[in-house]
Structure formats: C-alpha cells, structure tokens
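Project outcomes to date are best conveyed with an example. Our students and postdoctoral researchers have been running inverse folding experiments weekly, and each run begins with a structure described purely in tokens. The record below, which covers 248 residues, was selected by the lab manager from last quarter's runs and is presented without edits.
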C-alpha cells in the first residue's frame, strides 16, 4: 500500500495523528522517528537507514547513551527552571509537561530506566529538592535549586534580613519584659508604702485613745469632785418687785 497523496483526506488524517503524542515504546531515538503502531515500528527497525545508524552507534554505545542522558537532564532542568523557578511541583505532572514536546529526548535512550531513579539522581546531585508529595497526586515533589552567584547573594541577603528582624523582635520582647518587671516592682513598693502609712495611722490613733483613757481614769482613794457653774447671781434691785404709783 503506497503513501497517501498530498491533500487527500488520508494524508490529512495521517498528519493529524502524527501531531499528537504516541506511545514511547514505538519511538526510535536514534532516528528520531515516532511510529504509530507496532507494525510500523518493526518495519522501521528493518529499514536500511535505521540499520546504518545502529551500526554507527554500535561502535561506542556508552558514549551515545551518555550524550542522550546529558541532553535529557539539561532540557529537563532548563524547562523546570524557566517554567516553575524554585517553586514545588509534582514530579509526574511536570514530566507530562516535558514530554509534550515531540522532539524531546526520551528516557528509554538514557541511562535511567525509571522516573524514580532519575528523581533520586537529581536529589543526590543537589540539582533539585525532592520531597514526598502529601497531596492527592502522590509520588514526589521537586523544586529547582538555583546555585547561581546572584541567587546565592539574594538568599544571603534574605537570611540577613530575617536574622535582623528576629533580633529586633527579641530586643523588643526583652525591653517589654524589663518594663513589665519594673512596673511590677514599683507596684509592690507602692503597696508596701501604703501598708506602712496605714500602720502608722493606726498606731497614732491607738496612742490618742490610750491618752484619753488615761485622763478618764480615777484613783480609788480620791472622791469625785464636780465643779458646776451657773453664772453670776442677780442683784437685789433687779429682783425686787416694782412699787405701785399713787394717782392724785
């Protein structure tokens, strides 16, 4: 069966199918060709161009695998840095973003046989920070670690600023504690002073009461004398009755 002619519905359908992502197992990294099914992939592996490329790679396969691995890691980290920066993202979700490009390096051409092995490699090399994802998606979360001089300087400034803010908070806290302690001591001193003044007034009152009580006490051998004064006596002229007048 020959190829469909350009512009025919069959040709357009084949182009539309080729635009979407196909199965990874039917992709040839050596020839960078995606096959749509198992039969197409088998036919491709038997083609002259594929056999010729495999003979070239067979001379030093480790070098080619190392090149693919390095390019895969470089493209993966570059996309992570440019699209998400140092923010956390689910690893499986980001990998779907990475493979959305049909021309990306596929993992089956690298030295990593699984995503778990690759994510552990990123964590061991200090390229990404890897944690267990507590969300519904599960798996791992990754965050790019920017080790550029500018980023290191920015993080140092942020740490110094945070340390300065912490020192200011501690200084204010200590000052507040000193003020509270001083106010408490002044309150206790004022309370003691009031207590002393109260005791002094009470002692003074008791001494006055004792003085008055002593003045009222009498000796048992002496009679009680009372001095009563009713004022001056009236004169006889003033008290005499008036005389009657005789009328002539």
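After processing, the design step wrote out the following sequence:
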């Amino acid at each position: 069966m020959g190829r469909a002619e350009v512009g025919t519905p069959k040709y357009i359908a084949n182009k539309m199918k080729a635009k979407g992502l196909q199965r990874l197992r039917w992709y040839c990294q050596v020839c960078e060709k995606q096959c749509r099914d198992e039969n197409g992939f088998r036919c491709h592996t038997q083609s002259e161009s594929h056999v010729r490329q495999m003979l070239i790679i067979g001379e030093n396969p480790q070098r080619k695998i190392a090149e693919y691995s390095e390019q895969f890691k470089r493209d993966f980290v570059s996309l992570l840095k440019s699209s998400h920066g140092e923010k956390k993202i689910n690893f499986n979700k980001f990998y779907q973003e990475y493979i959305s490009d049909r021309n990306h390096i596929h993992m089956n051409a690298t030295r990593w046989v699984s995503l778990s092995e690759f994510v552990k490699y990123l964590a061991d090399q200090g390229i990404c920070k890897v944690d267990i994802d507590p969300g519904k998606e599960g798996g791992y979360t990754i965050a790019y670690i920017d080790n550029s001089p500018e980023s290191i300087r920015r993080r140092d400034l942020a740490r110094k600023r945070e340390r300065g803010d912490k020192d200011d908070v501690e200084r204010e806290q200590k000052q507040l504690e000193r003020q509270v302690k001083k106010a408490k001591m002044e309150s206790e001193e004022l309370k003691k002073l009031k207590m002393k003044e109260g005791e002094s007034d009470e002692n003074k009152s008791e001494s006055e009461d004792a003085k008055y009580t002593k003045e009222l006490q009498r000796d048992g051998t002496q009679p009680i004398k009372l001095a009563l004064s009713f004022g001056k006596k009236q004169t006889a002229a003033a008290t005499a009755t008036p005389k009657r007048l005789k009328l002539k």
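The chain has eight helices and five strands. The longest helix spans residues 149-216. The training component of this project remains on track.
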